[in-house]
Design a protein that fits this description.
single chain, 357 residues, alpha/beta, Rossmann fold, Dehydroquinate synthase-like, alpha domain, four-stranded parallel sheet
Length: 357
């Protein structure tokens, strides 16, 4: 087990990473301060892990809410199902919500916790690689809207994050690859040595090698925790963690939520951002080829849907959260392992990227 702290003053919290953590009460019970607990999970995860989690909670008064599974259900209508159950069971301000699932479950549970009775405790127990390295850490919560992804939400930190690598044993191959996309992102934006490690160890990650997965999760969380501690509410440097996401969110919205997995869309989006970085003279063609090769090895898409036009991208990217005062901001690579946020974008080069990718 490895413990990492997200340093946010009186809202700091630990991330526990390792194997065989899920069944040990000492990683959960100290972070539950009342008797009432609401476990929010989904139809896929509940048959696998819900009863095991409830057994760990001992004599707590446990309510479980099982949501439909999929990005297409990450909306206000589904969120309201959580509130319905909490209110019907008369949960009070001392309740603790536990998110047991992937990024969709975690985002909605965190948002529900931020809103219910103006804020109650919650814990993240991610069951996908993507959630372990990204969505469960940093306090971004929310839901999608038909016009844009994650446009309704709140910054709200959990009491703790429990990333048990044993839960990845049941993760489908496609979901594993989607999580690897976010792992690769950390190497690109802030940790070149990690990017090199990924080039050397991708086969181990794809084979679910326990040591390789634990290392990748811990290193990714270290990178994210360091950035979040400096910029919790994304007023500056935290925006680099959105590398590939402005393009990727446009793909997800255009295709319909859930058609492309988030990590798949981010993978194609990272290629587009790297392609534009190369056209602007910041990285080389060889750098771009290294990224494309790694994504292909990880069984991730490297091209946007051929049904999307430049106009589609521009229209959808114009409602991205990173648009500021009407100007599109993109995260680009100054070099491999160093990202930047800029509004100084040559439209002609951007159009070339749309055509090429």
């Amino acid at each position: 087990m490895h413990e990492l702290s997200v340093d946010l003053g009186d809202r700091s919290y630990p991330i526990f990473t390792g194997a065989e953590l899920f069944s040990k009460p000492e990683y959960l019970l100290p972070y539950i301060h009342g008797q009432q607990v609401c476990v929010v999970t989904n139809e896929t995860v509940a048959p696998l892990y819900l009863q095991q989690l409830k057994a760990v909670l001992g004599d707590k008064e446990v309510l479980d809410v099982v949501l439909p599974d999929g990005e297409q259900y990450k909306n206000l209508n589904t969120l309201n199902l959580i509130f319905d159950e909490l209110l019907a069971a008369r949960h009070n301000r001392t309740t603790t919500l536990i998110a047991l699932g992937g990024g969709v479950t975690g985002d909605m549970t965190g948002f529900a916790a931020a809103c219910y009775q103006r804020g109650v405790d919650f814990i993240q127990v991610p069951t996908t690689l993507l959630a372990m390295v990204d969505s469960s850490v940093g306090g971004k919560t929310g839901v999608n809207h038909a016009l844009g992804k994650n446009m309704i939400g709140a910054f709200y930190q959990p009491n703790c994050v429990l990333a048990d690598t044993d839960l990845l044993k049941t993760l489908p191959e496609r979901e594993l690859s989607a999580g690897i996309a976010e792992v690769i992102k950390y190497g690109l934006v802030s940790d070149y040595d990690f990017f090199v490690w990924l080039e050397q160890n991708m086969d181990k990650l794809l084979a679910k090698d326990e040591a390789a997965l634990a290392y990748a999760i811990d290193r990714s969380c270290q990178n994210k925790a360091s950035v979040v501690a400096r910029d919790e509410r994304e007023g500056g440097i935290r925006a680099i963690l959105n590398f590939g996401h402005t393009f990727g969110h446009a793909i997800e919205t255009a295709q319909g939520y859930g058609v492309w997995l988030h990590g798949e869309a981010v993978a194609a989006g990272m290629v587009m951002a790297a392609d534009l970085s190369q056209r602007m003279g910041m990285i080389s063609k060889d750098d771009l080829s290294r990224l494309v090769g790694m994504l292909r090895q990880a069984k991730l898409p490297v091209m946007a849907p051929d049904t999307m036009t430049s106009d589609d991208f521009i229209a959808l990217m114009s409602v991205d959260k990173k648009v500021l005062d009407g100007r599109l901001r993109l995260v680009l690579l100054q070099s491999m392992g160093e990202a930047m946020v800029t509004s100084d974008i040559d439209r002609a080069l951007l159009l070339q990227t749309f055509s090429a990718c």
